[in-house]
């Protein structure tokens, strides 16, 4: 048979299996529906029964409905390409690999879940170590239709007469496909080096490093899905948290886990880790460096011990006809005494009352001594401690404190100078105070400070918590990959597994914030040191190790193949960091397109037209998305330039926000500006240059960046 006819025949064979799978899926769905209906009927019946019977019937109803709903949720996930692989073993046994396991009515396997041990050979078998697999086949579907098949022969001399082999390079085909708004899963083409990381043991810390486009993010997400499948009992209840650099990024990856049937994972950008407040604005690099530094912990601690603005600076109370008076300095001394005993201020009001009463007793004794009298201390303390005017004073003088409020105080330069004395330099104090004067709008770096303050202050009394919420921000916290995610208590800190993506950019204070959520967790940590924009890597490493706990075992993996960029594009990016990356730190790009990056010198006055033209050219040239990447400062301007374009595939994005994202075509505007905007500018430019899968146009008014 000719190659196209063989291919057609093989596609037809796979189509008939895929049809069986979808028929079975419909049956399972109908069964789950029926179970749910029956559960509800049981609930209605219960109303007529005696109380004891009623309770047990309602329990049974809840269990039935719960299980039915879970099954339906799994079956209803968007299974694009439910079946994507097939293994033909030496024993002539065949298994199909797919996004979930399905058995027929006789309990025979129709599809094996890709995470099951039996499917591991689909990713791990090679010609050198074939694991008894003669032929590995990737099946590409659209909806329920098989479009194509692609085979690898692993034991060439064991191919039976009647076994056909078609195609070449399912991976290359997948890599060449156009990109959409959201990242796709890679279950059909996971590579061996990636599979090893995905299936690594779950305990301790698994660290994944590698250059841009090596699939670190994809691997970390598949690992989360794998761990939940294999260790659901250990991990499922407490939950998995995935932390990404920005909302654009978490949105970009949001479809990957649901496409594998996992909805029980929370995705949160760094600006939305703290419940009740969401920040998207980034600080300029020098400011972010101050806010992220561990030194801020001392500054915050001192700030919250200061006298709150606006509290009374004198106390007067009448005791048995005599006025007892504490002046400003004396009150401050009392406040200091309470703080030096430690403990979060919101938990210290009782201690504050005791210390204040002791100071009043001292005062009364002092007065009495002058008149040659004596005072019964015990009596005074008991009597004043029960007085309403004493308590009225106490609540204003020792108010409940909220994180947002303390950070706002630091917008007052004098206050910040006192709190930062010997810790921050004068220029740092100027910069920080200025940034905190506009409190309405928190930045991403502020969130870690607010979270630190939350812990340092301690929880406000219960009935005040609502007020604290409003104090932080009225926006509801982002929850999970979708609304089906579990409802967890506020400031939940018992995740069983935490995935941190783009970890090279977490500041020490952010590590503390994330670490707090995983006191008992195992970790998957993804990063590329060469892409780091953090100025003090050592301090960050220290905070990071602390987040993991001291005796945690760390497993390290490095991915070395760049699957995103064409070799032509990556070559240019590599030039930009030459001398900034160690030998062997840069990955190897496997795909060539024959299209070199287009570097254009433009006149600054003509920039607007040049951007418009380049964007339009790329939109015409590629099928998927086009990103216009520029310095953070230029985003509003360029967005307005392209407003009239109207093509949904076109996005304008600032350099720092482009982390982790990718586009088929990229227009990179004024590369030198990316370098000068940040303290680690070359690395930021390197990140931006490695976002394109197919075509890259660089528009530069100078050649300094090269
Ligand atoms: N085995 C694979 N099969 C198909 N596509 C893959 C494979 N591995 C990676 N890719 C694709 O390569 C691209 C880059 O992957 P990913 O974003 O996970 O890389 P990364 O290492 O996190 O990159 P960066 O550090 O630059 O953000 C994605 O489009 C991903 O789907």
From TrEMBL:
Q: Which branch of life, at top level?
A: Bacteria
* Gene3D superfamilies in the record: P-loop containing nucleotide triphosphate hydrolases
Keywords, alphabetical: ATP-binding, Helicase, Hydrolase, Nucleotide-binding
What Pfam families does the record tag this protein with? Answer: AAA_19 (PF13245), UvrD_C_2 (PF13538)
Binding-site residues, ATP: 210-217
Ranges where the UvrD-like helicase ATP-binding domain occurs: 189-566
What are the Basic and acidic residues biased-composition ranges?
481-490
Does the entry feature the keyword Lipid biosynthesis, yes or no? no
Q: Hydrolase among the record's keywords? A: yes
Q: Where is this region: Disordered?
A: 469-490
| InterPro entries for the chain | DNA_helicase_UvrD/REP, P-loop_NTPase, UvrD-like_ATP-bd, UvrD-like_helicase_C
- Return the PANTHER family for the record: DNA 3'-5' HELICASE, UVRD / RECB / PCRA DNA HELICASE FAMILY MEMBER
Q: What is this protein called?
A: HelD family protein
Origin organism is Amycolatopsis pigmentata
């Amino acid at each position: 048979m000719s190659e196209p006819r063989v291919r057609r025949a093989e596609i037809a064979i796979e189509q008939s299996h895929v049809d069986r799978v979808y028929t079975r899926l419909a049956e399972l769905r109908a069964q789950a529906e029926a179970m749910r209906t029956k559960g509800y009927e049981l609930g209605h019946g219960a109303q007529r029964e005696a109380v004891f019977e009623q309770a047990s019937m309602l329990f049974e109803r809840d269990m039935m409905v719960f299980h039915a709903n879970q099954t339906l949720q799994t079956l209803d996930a968007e299974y694009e390409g439910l079946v994507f692989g097939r293994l033909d073993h030496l024993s002539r046994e065949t298994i199909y690999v797919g996004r979930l396991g399905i058995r027929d009515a006789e309990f025979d396997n129709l599809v094996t879940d890709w995470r099951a041990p039996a499917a591991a050979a689909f990713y791990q078998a090679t010609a050198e170590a074939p694991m008894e697999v003669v032929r590995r086949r990737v099946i590409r579907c659209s909806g329920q239709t098989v479009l194509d098949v692609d085979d690898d022969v692993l034991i060439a001399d064991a191919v039976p007469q009647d076994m056909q082999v078609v195609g070449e390079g399912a991976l290359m085909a997948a890599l060449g496909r156009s990109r959409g708004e959201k990242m796709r899963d890679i279950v059909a083409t996971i590579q061996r080096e990636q599979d090893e990381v995905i299936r690594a043991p779950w305990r301790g810390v698994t660290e994944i490093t590698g250059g841009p486009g090596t699939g670190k993010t994809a691997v970390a997400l598949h690992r989360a899905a794998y761990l939940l499948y294999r260790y659901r009992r250990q991990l499922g209840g407490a939950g998995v948290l995935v932390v990404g650099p920005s909302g654009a990024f978490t949105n970009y990856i949001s479809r990957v886990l649901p496409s594998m049937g996992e909805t029980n994972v929370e995705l949160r950008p760094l600006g939305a880790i703290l419940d009740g407040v969401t920040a998207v604005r980034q600080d300029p690099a020098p400011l972010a460096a101050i806010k992220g530094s561990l030194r801020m912990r001392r500054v915050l601690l001192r700030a919250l011990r200061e006298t709150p603005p606006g509290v009374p600076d004198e106390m007067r109370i009448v005791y048995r006809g005599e006025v007892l008076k504490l002046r400003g300095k004396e009150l401050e001394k009392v406040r200091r005494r309470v703080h030096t005993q430690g403990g979060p201020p919101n938990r210290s009001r009782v201690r504050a009352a005791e210390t204040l009463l002791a100071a009043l007793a001292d005062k009364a004794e002092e007065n009495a001594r002058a008149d040659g009298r004596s005072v019964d201390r015990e009596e005074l303390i008991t009597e004043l401690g029960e007085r309403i005017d004493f308590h009225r004073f106490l609540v204003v003088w020792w108010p409940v404190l909220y994180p947002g409020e303390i950070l706002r105080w630091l917008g007052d330069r004098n206050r910040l100078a006192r709190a930062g004395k010997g810790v921050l330099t004068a220029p740092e104090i100027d910069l920080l105070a200025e940034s905190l004067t506009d409190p309405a709008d928190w930045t991403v770096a502020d969130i870690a400070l607010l979270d630190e303050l939350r812990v340092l202050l301690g929880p406000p009394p219960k009935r005040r918590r609502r007020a604290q919420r409003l104090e932080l921000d009225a926006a509801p916290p982002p929850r999970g990959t979708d609304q089906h995610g579990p409802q967890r208590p506020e400031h939940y800190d018992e995740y069983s597994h935490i995935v941190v993506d783009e970890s090279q950019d977490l500041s020490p204070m952010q590590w503390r914030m994330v670490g707090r959520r995983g006191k008992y967790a195992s970790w998957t940590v993804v990063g590329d040191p060469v892409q780091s924009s953090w100025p003090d890597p050592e301090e960050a490493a220290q905070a990071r190790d602390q987040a993991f706990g001291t005796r945690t075992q760390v497993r390290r993996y490095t991915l070395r193949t760049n699957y995103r960029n064409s070799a032509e594009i990556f070559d240019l990016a590599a030039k930009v960091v030459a001398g900034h990356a160690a030998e062997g730190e840069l990955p190897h790009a496997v795909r060539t397109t024959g299209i070199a990056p287009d570097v254009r010198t433009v006149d600054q006055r003509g920039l607007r037209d040049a951007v418009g033209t380049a964007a339009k050219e790329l939109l015409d040239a590629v099928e998927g998305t086009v990103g216009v990447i520029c310095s953070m400062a230029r985003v509003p301007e360029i967005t307005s330039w392209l407003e009239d374009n109207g093509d949904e595939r076109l996005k304008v994005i600032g350099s720092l926000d482009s982390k982790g994202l990718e586009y088929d075509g990229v227009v990179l505007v004024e590369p030198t500006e990316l370098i000068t905007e940040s303290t680690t500018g070359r690395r930021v430019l390197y990140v931006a240059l490695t976002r394109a899968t197919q075509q890259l146009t660089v528009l530069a008014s100078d050649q300094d960046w090269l």
